[in-house]
Design goal:
The chain is an alpha/beta fold and 178 residues long. It has one domain: 3-Layer(aba) Sandwich (Rossmann fold), CATH 3.40.50.450. 44% of the residues lie in helices and 18% in strands. It has a seven-stranded parallel β-sheet, with helices on both faces. Strand 5, helix 4 and strand 6 form a beta-alpha-beta unit. Helix 1 (14-29) runs parallel beside helix 2 and helix 1 (14-29) packs parallel to helix 7. The longest helix has 16 residues, at 14-29. The two termini are 14 Å apart.
Amino acid sequence: MNICVFLSAADLDERYTAPARQFAGLLGKRGHTLVWGGSDVGLMKVVADGVQEHGGRLVGVSVTFLADQAREGADEMVIARDLAERKAELLTRSDAIVILVGGTGTLDEATEILELKKHGLHTKPVVLLNSAGYYDGLHEQFRRMEAEGFLPLPLTELMFFADDPEAAMTYLETHPVR
């Protein structure tokens, strides 16, 4: 499976790097391909290293203004013109999406993917890995959106909130694209 991972390019502490490293190991050991933003810095590097160390393939999609941070040695590296093209390329090349911890860029990618799914423009499984409770507030906001009628489909059909890397991978492997 080609698994797109949205995540931070920042250097983060162990509460976030440890689950990301564990997820990367599962991805690589189980023969999946990482499709990611292509950067060789921060958490993006941690995940790419972990996937590669465990035998997985790397498909990066960087963007022109970040090309100097693109990982050398990826199995494939695409350089998109802009962030919109990058997001479209990441979605096209993936069978599933996992959202790890991140900032505004990660949140932008996640909400666009969810909006596309909400409108039926893709049916790929989406998992949010809630490392160290990072997305507790977002989870509560999505539950409120659902309760108050802002989501046209149940939250459980839109995405899966996983508390640990194993739960995230199990969900992906048991919920293929429809």
